[in-house]
């Protein structure tokens, strides 16, 4: 028998997938409009044939690699590369398609797989997590880089669920007021591969990446504080060891309901990241 609570969880999961798809569509529209504008200018100067080539050759990084056509001369259109154990490197690629970018540069290609610990200092207390550098080296390396650049400082966690128990953070431009239409679109201006998906489960304490499709990871992440039932499409890269009670308390305050009516929205009790520090065992 399907209970009302089970149905609400199902709606929340479906809305999460719809939201990720909506991000893809917004990015696609932004890029399409930009290319159309460029194409019009090219038509005036060079001709319609060149304009059509420019439009069709443009890579939309929010689509899967199999569906995207690489731009003829743009290195940023290349696919991100997974961790190469022979060289100890990851491949990050530029991606400013959403327009909501806090640009602090690109992470170094050389990564460490040594165990690491992340402390997220919030206005409500510390959240501490162990990071799995061996299974998600590109992800952890990116977080180390962003933390070193104070990227997350004074940012708002913009989405929370009650029956869908996640807290989503990492959009550097989010306002988390329930009104800002671009909340959830912000990122660092680069992307990288999915990792550690085999057998991935999103149970209480799991730390995972939010994305808008395969290999579109940026800076947004979520912390699970209950049972989500999500499919293994989001890179799990750590486990919270301290501070989950903060999320429990915030969830009890409720959320500013979003239009989908699935119980997710900006948390009524603001969660503000003041600082992120990561230490590694060498």
Report on the structure:
The chain is built from 4 helices and 15 strands. The chain has a single domain (81-280), classed as Cyclophilin. The protein is 26% helix and 23% strand. The strands form 3 sheets. It has an 11-stranded antiparallel β-sheet. It has helices spanning 4-45, 48-57, 137-148, 244-253, and strands at residues 81-84, 89-91, 93-94, 116-122, 125-131, 155-156, 159-161, 166-169, 190-191, 206-209, 221-224, 236-242, 255-257, 264-267, 272-280. It is globular and about 50 Å long. The longest helix is centred in the N-terminal third of the chain and has 42 residues, at 4-45. The protein is an alpha+beta fold and 282 residues long.
Describe the structure in brief.
By secondary structure, the chain is α+β, with helices and mostly antiparallel strands.
Radius of gyration: 19 Å
- Overall shape: it is globular
Q: Largest beta sheet: what is the strand line-up? A: 6-15-4-5-12-10-11-8-7-14-13
Q: What is the straight-line distance between the termini? A: 52 Å
* Corresponding CATH superfamily: Cyclophilin-like
Query: Mean pLDDT, nearest integer?
Result: 80
Which structural class should the secondary elements be placed in?
Answer: alpha+beta
The proportion of residues forming helix, as a percent range, comes to 25-40%
């Amino acid at each position: 028998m399907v209970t009302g609570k089970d149905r609400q969880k199902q709606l929340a999961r479906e809305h999460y997938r719809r939201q990720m798809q909506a991000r893809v569509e917004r990015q696609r529209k932004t890029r399409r409009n930009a290319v159309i504008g460029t194409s019009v200018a090219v038509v005036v100067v060079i001709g319609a044939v060149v304009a059509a080539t420019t439009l069709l050759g443009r890579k939309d990084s929010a689509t899967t690699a199999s569906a995207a056509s690489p731009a003829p001369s743009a290195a940023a259109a290349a696919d991100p590369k997974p961790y190469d154990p022979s060289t100890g490197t990851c491949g990050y690629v530029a991606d400013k398609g959403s327009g909501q970018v806090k640009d602090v540069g690109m992470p170094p290609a050389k990564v460490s797989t040594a165990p690491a610990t992340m402390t997220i200092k919030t206005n409500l207390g510390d959240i501490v997590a162990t990071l799995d550098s061996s299974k998600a080296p590109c992800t952890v390396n990116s977080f180390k880089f962003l933390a070193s650049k104070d990227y997350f400082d004074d940012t708002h966690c913009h989405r929370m669920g009650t029956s869908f128990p996640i807290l989503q953070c990492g959009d550097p431009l989010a306002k988390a007021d329930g009104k800002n239409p671009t909340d959830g679109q912000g990122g660092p201006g680069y992307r990288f591969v999915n990792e550690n998906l085999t057998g991935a489960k999103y149970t209480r304490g799991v730390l995972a990446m939010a994305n808008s499709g395969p290999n579109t990871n940026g800076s947004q992440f979520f912390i699970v504080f209950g049972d989500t039932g999500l499919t293994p499409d989001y890179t799990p890269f750590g486990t919270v060891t301290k501070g989950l009670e903060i999320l429990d308390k915030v969830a009890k305050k409720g959320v500013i309901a979003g239009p989908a009516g699935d119980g997710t929205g900006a948390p009524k009790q603001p969660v503000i990241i003041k600082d992120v520090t990561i230490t590694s065992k060498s």
